[in-house]
Each structure stands twice: as structure tokens, then as C-alpha cells.
Amino acid sequence: MIRTGRRIWNRNASTGAGEGGLKLTDAAVERLKELRRDGGNEEVLLRVRVDAGGCSGFQYRFDLMEGPPGEKDRVFEKDGQKVVVDDVSLAFVEGATVDYVEELIKQSFQVVDNPNAETGCGCGSSFAAR
User: If DSSP codes are grouped into helix, strand and coil, which group holds residue 28?
Assistant: First the structure.
């Protein structure tokens, strides 16, 4: 783990999808396990998508979903925990890492180390695409 300011970044990431997919840190995997356990639903998945907006042009969105992924979704898995990304959003996050970050004022999933982002905002929720 790397501590920068008040953030703790966990760089132990991997993906079951091979190179160029979406990687998951150990912290993201552990948080998904907690959410599944606490909610009593083993079918919960994390959906990552990119929407237009935010202070830098595009913004990351995270939703918990139940049920099977759609036909145009890609599923990335680590230690049995799954993250779903649609084809359009994948073009913006391919090769990036999904992390779970705990700060003094918030706890959230975040996309880090995104090779498709030229710049990002200070809060980490929006970015400008390359």
C-alpha cells in the first residue's frame, strides 16, 4: 500500500480478464465481499460506467447491481468478486484499476491508474479522456 496524504492506495491489483482489462485491488475485492455478506446476497456485482459530465468532462459512476450482466457487458473477476463494465465505458477505463479508498470524509470505489485519462479532478471522480 502507498499512503499519499490521507489516501491509502492499494496497488495489489489483478484481473481475470488478461491484459488490457480492468484490474481490481485487494481493497476493492474485500469491500465487495463485505457488501455481499452484509446484504445477504451473493449475486451482487459492481457496475462501473463512464458518463459525460463532471468537472473534467467525463465522470466515473459506480452502482451495485443484481442479476446477470447484459449481452454487451464485460465481467472482470478477482477472488470471486465481479465488476461489470459496458462496452462503451470499457473504452474509457480499459487498463485501469478499481480501488476502494477510505478517507476521513468519505469511503468509495474509485478508478485509479487510468491510462485513458489525460487529467483528473482533485476528488478523483471525473477525468478528461486522452
Answer: helix
